[in-house]
Design brief:
By secondary structure, the protein is an alpha/beta fold. It is about 40% helix and about 15% strand. It has a seven-stranded mixed β-sheet with strand order 5-6-4-3-7-8-9, sandwiched between helices. The protein is globular.
């Protein structure tokens, strides 16, 4: 499952160049894996390609989109409208991938009522109403760490069962809630480790971890 978004992105890039078919080797290079892994993964979807030709880009895109649940848009709320939250709100890549930001929430009274593009910044206490009226499926936490747990609790209480957490802290949610964490500092620290030990021949490539 974790590799399907990589294949999806690679196929989108391929389709943008009006290419109708793609080999497993080329798809592997774009996705950063090996061709055997591509063939094995796609065989689980029932896609085997054609020997000497490869995979049809359009049908494979639709198949992976269906597997990832991208055949319709998922409404998203961003909680925390600081620098990161605003950058996420402005990012047009979400909409292109089937994620529509429909609400912005913040707990700073001085920001309430402000606009980011066409969306009004609303208070955290409005989450239940927003989730209900706008059918919000996914919540993004872009707050300072000390308020992230409270925000997660508010999202769960509002009935939002999928959360993406950008706050650099551990957040607990019920087992019925799906949560992914993006910690930029940890990723930089991993790169720092590899940079520091780059001359160690025993160190495997970072992409292999």
């Amino acid at each position: 499952m974790a590799r399907l978004p990589l294949y999806y992105r690679a196929l989108l890039e391929t389709a943008e160049h009006d290419v109708d078919t793609v080999s497993s080797e080329h798809l592997a290079r774009l996705a950063g894996v090996n061709a055997a892994q591509v063939r094995k993964d796609l065989s689980h979807l029932g896609s085997y390609g054609t020997r000497g030709v490869g995979y049809e880009v359009g049908p494979l895109l639709r198949e992976i989109a269906g597997e990832l649940g991208l055949t319709h848009e998922w409404p998203v709320v961003i909680v925390g409208i600081g620098n990161l939250g605003r950058a996420l709100a402005h990012y047009r890549g979400f909409e292109a991938r089937g994620f529509q930001v429909v609400a912005l929430v913040n707990n700073d009274p001085t920001k309430l009522g402000g606009l980011v593009d066409d969306l009004v910044i609303e208070g955290v206490d409005e989450l239940p109403r927003l989730a209900r009226e706008r059918s919000i499926a996914i919540g993004i936490i872009a707050t300072p760490p000390h308020v992230a747990q409270g925000v997660a609790d508010a999202l769960v209480a509002a009935g939002i069962a999928s959360i993406l957490n950008f706050a650099p802290t551990v957040v607990s949610v019920p087992t019925s809630v799906s949560m992914r964490k993006v910690d930029l500092a940890i990723e930089l620290q991993i790169l720092s480790f590899y940079q520091h030990h780059r001359d160690d021949p025993a160190l495997p490539p970072l992409g292999a971890r």
